[in-house]
Amino acid sequence: MSAPTHNLNSQTNTAAPSAASREARQPAGVKIEKRKFFVPGGFVAVVLGDEAVEGVEVWRDPSKPVACGFSGKRGKPDWYYRFQSEERMQQHIDAWLKRLNEAEGWKAQRRAERKATAEVGHGCKVGDIFCCSWGYDQTNVDYYQVTELHGRTMATVRRIAAQSQETGWLQGECAPAPGRFLDEERYPAMRVRINGGTTPSFKAYSFASAYLMKPTAQVGELRTYETASWSAYA
Asked: Mind giving me the DSSP string for 1-48?
């Protein structure tokens, strides 16, 4: 199905929408006067169809194919071009609106997925272990154990020790040691938001996340986990 078109030369486009209609189209946070600052004098508003997403506006020169377009909450234009013909300008506006609608649809889908995940919850339990592997010149491995749950999204975690063995020069393998909590004064408990999904996770640092580990085997309360590789500076 071809993209909808807008008659840029129609008489109905020569008058700018009323302030009330512009405010209805613009999302909260957009100042009409701020956008007008970037619209050249003499430009008129193009009346867009219902397919235009919230916050979208197109302004054009009524005598030649020159136009600019705004979207979202931005005060500055997304684009401001002089076109070779009215047809090329029409094609650009239609393609731009199509991309905006596709992006809006993707955002709506992501919001729905996040809402559904939040309603289900992360599914973690007290005692679950998370692993955070991070580093640049070396690989550090930190382990965390869930000690408390707070609703469907929040939890309290504490750092735990690692069982480690060298396999070479300044490198080795390690696995978590459940219940062996590190010094709480140096490594205080953290209240974190656990992101649900296939592998629940939380932000351990601003630059790294910790991911839920699944036991490789369990006998009673005793669980074993897959090892991780670490390395150190020379």
From this structure: -PPP---TTSGGGGSPPPHHHHHHHSPTT--HHHHHHTSPTT-EE---
Helix extents (H) in 121-149? none
Amino acid at 220: G
Lookup: tokens for 191: 């209240």
Cα–Cα dist 207/25, whole Å: 38
Is-above-0.85 flag for pTM? no
Q: Tell me whether strands 66-70 and 79-82 are parallel, antiparallel or unpaired.
A: antiparallel
d(CA 146, CA 128): 5
Q: What does DSSP assign to residue 125?
A: -
- Phi, psi (deg, nearest 5) at residue 88: -65, -35
First-last CA distance in the chain? 62
Q: Nearest 5°: phi and psi at 130?
A: -120, 145
Tell me the per-residue pLDDT of 173-210, one tens digit each, with 9 for 90 and over.
999 999 999 999 999 999 999 988 789 999 999 999 99
Phi, psi for residue 211 in degrees, rounded to 5: -120, 145
- Enter the tokens of residue 46: 């193009």
* Positive or negative: CA dihedral 114, 120, 123, 126: positive
Can you tell me the distance from the alpha carbon of 108 to that of 102, in angstroms, rounded to the nearest whole number? 10
The letter for the amino acid at 42 is: G
> Pseudo-torsion of CA 138, 139, 141, 142, nearest 10°?
50
- As a whole number of angstroms, the distance between CA 62 and CA 8 comes to 9
Give the C-alpha separation, 208 to 128, whole Å: 19
